[in-house]
Predict the structure.
Amino acid sequence: MMKAKRLIIVAVGGQGNLLASRVLAEAALASGVPIRMSEIHGMAQRGGVVESALVFGDARSPIISDAEADVLVGFEPSETLRALNRCNPESVVITNLAPLPPFTVSIGKGVYPDIKQIQDLIRAKTRTLIAFDATKMAHAAGSARAVNMVLLGALIQTRILPVSVESVRSAIETKTARSFVPANLKAFELGFEAAKNLAAS
């Protein structure tokens, strides 16, 4: 029996959440790890929320209830905060700190939460928070769209999931468009290093 590890990924439509999920699923299969996956799409095509739930190991259901997630990965800080109810005091949270304010904020109908406050709220409820500007790192890797790979690198660095670095690298090579592979691998390495440095500090 392999103890199940539960992962929630939240993002805004267009951020590449589903590709990140598929890369992880492929890496799990290559590692001989049972994987169950479910996806919830908001209005993804209009920048709505997209959520993926992945359960690695022996589990009957891909559903992750409140307080059940071992890890939460957020591609956007306010969405990470919104999904915090899925975590418990032992959870690890990895989040991008670069905001993508929703339409309501841009037309003056809403207020975007303070980034420092978001981090304080997450830290108060979980064991570990790994937070950095993944968008900036994606640009440094050569692709603005590689935020997903940066966060994937940070996730794999935590060693929480039962998949190897090598299996994820090869899944990136097989699951992403060939022209994006070099930038995606670079983004993955940058995220991996960022999480390592944050853990050491």
